[in-house]
Structure formats: C-alpha cells, structure tokens
Description:
Number of strands of chain B: 0
Structural class of chain B: mainly alpha
Number of domains of chain A: 2
Number of domains of chain B: 1
Order of helices and strands of chain A: HHEEEHHHHHHHH
Order of helices and strands of chain B: HHHHHH
Strand content of chain B: under 5%
Largest sheet of chain B: none
Number of helices of chain A: 10
Shape of chain B: globular
Shape of chain A: elongated
Helix content of chain B: over 70%
Oligomer: heterodimer
Radius of gyration of chain A: 22 Å
Largest interface: A-B, 61 and 49 residues
Helix content of chain A: 55-70%
Distance between the termini of chain B: 43 Å
Number of strands of chain A: 3
Largest sheet of chain A: 3 strands, antiparallel
Amino acid sequence: MKTKLIAHTAKLAGRLLLENGAETYRVEDTVGYICSQYGFKEVEVIALPTGTIYSFVDEEGVPHSELIRTKTRTTNLGCVARVNDISRGMSSGKLTLEEGCAQLEALSRASAQPLWLSLLGNVLSAAFFALLFGANWLDFIVAGVCGAMTRLLGLLFSEDNISSTLYALLSGALSSAIAMGSVALFGAGNPTAIITGAIMPLLPGLAITNAIRDTVNGDLVSGVARTAEALLKAVAIAAGVGVVIALWR
Amino acid sequence: MTIARILFDLVVAGIATAGFGLLFRTEGKSLLPCAVIGGLGYIVYDWIVLEYASAPVAAFISCLLVGLIAEVAARILKGPTIVFATMGIIPMVPGYGMYRTMEAVVQADYERATAVGMETILVAGAIALSLGFATVVARRLLSRRRVR
C-alpha cells in the first residue's frame, strides 16, 4: 500500500513539473528524491519533454517501473515553485508523505488562471514593450489592443502541439494586421514598435531558457528537443508577421 | 546615459516583465523581484548598446548579470532559479531583430535580412550562453543542497 502511495506521489510531482515548464533536472531530482527518501532502492529517472520514465526497487525487493506521458506543456511558474516547496517540505520532514501527496493532489486540481489576469499580463507586456521600442502614446494603446486580441484568439485553440504552432502563426499575423491597420486608419506612428511589442508575449523565452539550462546540465536530448520547440514557434510567429506585411504592400 | 533614461528603462522594462510574470503565472511574492531583475538587466543592456558595443555583446553581459542575480535571488527567496532567470531575460529577447529580419525578407532585401537575422541569432545565442555560464558559475560559488 505504501509502495503505491510513494509511486503515486512521485508520479504526481513529476507530471506537474513537466507540464508546467520546469527544467529537466528538476523533474528528475524531485521524482528521484521522493522515491529514494521513502525507502526505494536503485532509483533511476529519465525525464524528457514528452514523458518521464522512472524505475525503482521497493522494500520487498520487487522492481517496478512507471511511465508519465506529458502531452500538454504550458507555463505555470507558480505551480513549479509550489511543487518545489512541497518537495522541500517532504525532504526536510516538515510534511509527511500523506500530507505531501494531498497537497500535490490539490495543486493538480487547482483552477485555471482567470481570464482577466492573463489578459492583463498580455496587455501590459505588449504595451510596455512597444513603449520600450520607441512607441508614442497612440502606438502604446494599439499595442495593448494587439495584446488583448492575441490572448482572446488563444481561447479558440487547445494546448496541444499542432494548434499551438498554428496559434503562433495566426497571432503574429493578427498583431501585424492590427498594427498596419491602425497606422493606415488613425495614423499611429510606428508599426515596428507596435508589432515588436505585440509579439513579445508570444516569443518562446521560457522554452529557450529551459533548452539552454538542460543542455548545460547534460540533458542533451531534452535540450535539443526544446530548442526545436522554441525554433518552431519563433519561425511560426515570424512567418505570420511576414505574410501580413507582404500582403499589405 | 541620462538619469531619465535609466528610470524610463527601469520602470517600463520592469512593468513589461511583470506583465510576463502574470502571463507565466508567477507567484505574487516573486512578481516584484522579477520586475526589478528585468528592469536592471535592461538598463545594463541599453547602456552598453548606447555607449560601447553591439547588441549581442550587450545581451551577453546583461543576461550574465541577470543569471547571477537570479541564482542569488532564488537562494534568498527560496524559489526555483528558473522563475527569476526566465523573467529577467525577457526584455533582452530579440523580438525587434526578428521583426526587422522578417521585414527585410518581405522586401526581398536579402542582404539586410542576412545581416539583421545573423545579429538576431547571435543575440539569442548570447542570452542562452550567458545563462548557461551563470548557472555554472553559481554552482561553483554557491553551494547547493542537492548537488547533481
């Protein structure tokens, strides 16, 4: 019974970390730590962006292995930080296994981010990045509108891979269409600043950070896979922007 | 570089970074530190681009700084480094270069596209390299509870 609970807790922690954008070594460390802390022997973990495999020998000497498949990858750094806190609590003895498992369960059932908050984030970063790249006040507002529209466009797409690439393409196109349109209609000054600001929230900053941290850590497979993910997204955004500018001429 | 420009960079890049923080669902308590790290990084980047060197060099130095501050902040605030590092480098991500590359491609000006595109790739590479470098340096200097 206890074996089941330990394996379940490790699996839960690994899944939460991988799905919410943690680095590979953090996933491997956390899963491995939970397993070995509660008495499993010969714990081996390999984490990849698309799934995690771990094996261990339980207290009766029976070998087990488990597989966690991750199909969606979102960014929720708050969740990563929470799992990190819980695993720290368990390793320092502040949390028992049962408490840790219950907290992880609660975390995996936590509600999605309210729409207004992500809208606010998107609008703020798009508008202020535009300002940083030399926008005037009208451009600033237009960039904010672009940010809001791309976020709303995101509601139409689920989070699997094909649609996230399509979403990157379409949101790049939408941003530049709004920017070009507002320059033509209201004489907003600087389409470059607007478009740059609007595509900043879409760019794969986290993916590239993680790719490098993985590579430096020696998790070469994950590093290369995440680089590919980041490149695909960046190219899709650029293509979306490019198509609209080309058509506008 | 004037004081006004420094303040402008700090506030505007800071708010933009905080917006990203909301988007990436950073915990409320790390939002302000992230914004400050992002703002500081951008000040250094802007200063180097204005007075001394090209964008890739500026990106390397400023992101190295961001990476080191992030490692320290993670230990003080007891959160994962990735939270602070990811947020901190956001203002340096070369969205502007990407746009100008695309613009040049669309105008069939391949010479400019190659030049600007090369710079964009170099900036991205510099960010990546400096972050990796910061991680290695921090591992050496600051002891970790769980050493890998």
